[in-house]
Amino acid sequence: GQDVSMNTPGAAVVATIKSGGNEFKSLQNLSYEGKSFVGNNVDPNGPIAKLGGSAQPNLLYWNDHNDLGGPIVKDKLWFFVAYGHFKINKQISGINPAVATDLGIFQQFTTKETYKASSKDTLIGYYQWGSKSKPLRGLSVTTPKDSTLAQYSPNWMYNGRWERVWSNRLFTEINIGTFGYNFPEQPSVDYKNNPPRHDLATGFNSGAGWEPFILLRNKPQAYGDATYYLPTKNAGSHDLKLGFEWIDDRSGQTYNGASGPIRYLDNGTNPDGTPIVDEILLTDLGDPAKLGSTWLASTNRDRHVSFYAQDRWTANNKVTLTAGVRYDRQRPYYTEGKRDPILTDFFAQQTTPAATLLVRNNIAPRLALAYDPGGNGKSVVKLFYGRYYFNIADSFSGVNPGTENDKTYEFLDQNHNGLYDGPQELGTLLSESGGVSTTLDTSLVTPHTDEIDASFQRQFWGEAAWRVLYVRKMTRNQFDSNGINMAREGQFTVPVTVPVTLANYDGSKSGAVQGTQDFTVYDIPNNLAGVVQDEITTDPASVNFGAANYDTVEVGFNKRFGQGLFLDTSYDWTRRDDLRTNSSSNSPLTQSDTIATGYYQNVFPTVSNRQVTSTWTYHLSTRYQFKYGIGLGANYQAQSGWPYARRITVKLPNAGSQNFWMTDLGSSGQTSDKVSLLNVRFDKAFTFGRYKLTGMLDLYNILNANPVVNFNTSNGSKFLNVNGVLDPITAQVGVRFEF
């Protein structure tokens, strides 16, 4: 039902796209590569619009990339430089583009130099710098313009490598470098006039964006390895490898206080539209003007030292066996920090000394077998087992007293002005976090994942092959980096019957009320009210220590025909058995499963923390190269929806606000929309001696499909409110020049 026409008068490009009676025109001088023209895939009177959704096309897409390389000194010194600039301005579902859009500007510069010092030695230098700018980071139907955070963040990476060929059997390399980025944020409005608020019932934010930070990440590292080829007289050959790695993973995240030290946690609104403030979050953030002088967050670090050895034994033309082992030593620690809080009634001014948290040594084996039954290279059976230990990185930042500490209280608000006027307005302490109050279980073991792969591939009928693959991943001994309140563990034993009004989004303030249902949930005893003993520890035995299993089966086929046609297709099915959190993401940029993995203390054991769900994906891609430099490619992908349930928030007398899932995820067929996406590319190349000019036309979502990919799962007036829809049909023209 789409009418897509493109004309090229002179140096300009005009595109007209008609959809549903709406016509969209764009005029752009085409200077290099990547200008997009978009349509609309949401009927303003249709079901998606009734759920608050709207199309979210790319209003502007511009991408240019330039690279140049070659010899400086023939056979001795080479160079390569590249620069890319990428700009995208995207409409967000449910937000009038005249009010706000999601603009992103990205830059990337890369250079690499290679020097052949001798016939055996090669020196390589690499440098990369980039930047990312998003003035309204976090914009969504649940986070309006005023509650976004402005981001400008540079990133960099550089390294130097020495490669040496000692003989026709021995090769070594040593690499020294670093990777890092600086990620500062600032709120869009002043918190003094617009204090940050979050509605626990609906997931909606208002006021200044919460907790802008300065995240400085740096990862200096060095590694080296030696590879030796060892033939044997009667037993094939060995490829031996020995190596080491050193990393100091540094993460300095400072919440800069620009949104103030207080966040109000609402629970719906009063009839007059004022918020019902149930809880209040207080932090030990200081005056942002004094950051770096009277207060400074300490950095979280993790020192890695690793050694590994591997032997790939090619026994004969049928069997190759690879065996390896890796030793890892991790030492997470933090540096000195200073706190100078504004809210001195609750937090103390302090300087915290540096400390090592623990040291962990782990050994991970890996084993692989490749077997060719016929010995002719037509088929192969592959088996693999490997263990991978979790990179702790900054996961223990919650026990660092030199970073943010906070307390959540019941908010009494006696004068009903919705604002904090002093300690007399606080009720029961509901939770607290941060290194001042959170401890680390020093017996915690490093989580790991065991992976088992089995596959069979068979070539037949020219350049055609099919494959079947099974992968199982088993994660064990997981922990929650935010900590678990051990005083409450196993103590949700007091039954409470809570009436809950079930409602869906229908465009009105109160939503479409379906009725009231009673839920029997469990609270903690009175003597535990206000008791908080947060600890970062392995998930409890009641949830099998956080164990998770993931099984994936893939069947695929590919074929390259003699006349320029290529075909690749596959089908994947995945079953997951893991812990799911009691929250979900409302970001329109999250378009797969919005429910993360993790442990929570469940007040509604009728629905388990552990959920078993499955998803599938089908993929088909093909390309045909015609005569005269003409190419046509197509890519089709279909994927199942992700399972969800209605998430309910209740306020308990002692434990405060708690979330739980009404039913198992995906029960009664509750899944997001299935996504079917078809993209097409047409290109034509023109060759002039050593020069080549290629024109490209891409059509994205040519079927103009409109599945909802993100929506609100919170019960109430915003349940099923659409946060994101698949991008509509988009035409992109581009030019590539090579010389």
The helical percent reads under 10%
How many separate helices?
1
Which spans of ≥5 residues are poorly predicted at pLDDT below 50? 1-34
* Overall form: globular
First-last Cα distance: 41 Å
Approximately what portion of the residues adopt beta-strand conformation?
A: over 45%
Query: Roughly how many Å is the radius of gyration?
Result: 29 Å
Largest sheet entry: 24 strands, antiparallel
Averaged pLDDT, please? Answer: 91
Structure characterization notes:
This protein is mainly β and 739 residues long. The protein is 1% helix and 57% strand. The chain is built from one helix and 44 strands. The chain has a 24-stranded antiparallel beta sheet that branches. The longest helix has 4 residues, at 47-50. Residues 1-34 have low confidence and may be disordered.
List the helices and strands and how they pair.
Blueprint: E1 3-7, E2 12-19, E3 22-29, E4 33-38, H1 47-50, E5 58-73, E6 77-90, E7 102-116, E8 121-137, E9 149-165, E10 170-187, E11 197-199, E12 205-206, E13 213-218, E14 221-231, E15 237-255, E16 262-269, E17 275-283, E18 300-314, E19 319-334, E20 337-339, E21 350-352, E22 355-356, E23 360-371, E24 379-389, E25 406-411, E26 426-433, E27 439-440, E28 448-460, E29 464-476, E30 484-485, E31 494-504, E32 512-523, E33 534-536, E34 548-560, E35 565-579, E36 610-625, E37 630-639, E38 647-652, E39 656-661, E40 675-688, E41 691-700, E42 708-711, E43 722-725, E44 730-738
Parallel strand pairs: 11-16, 27-33
Antiparallel strand pairs: 1-2, 2-3, 4-44, 5-6, 6-7, 7-8, 8-9, 9-10, 10-13, 10-14, 11-12, 13-15, 14-15, 15-18, 16-17, 17-25, 18-19, 19-22, 19-23, 20-21, 23-24, 24-28, 25-26, 28-29, 29-34, 30-33, 31-32, 34-35, 35-36, 36-37, 37-40, 38-39, 40-41, 41-44, 42-43
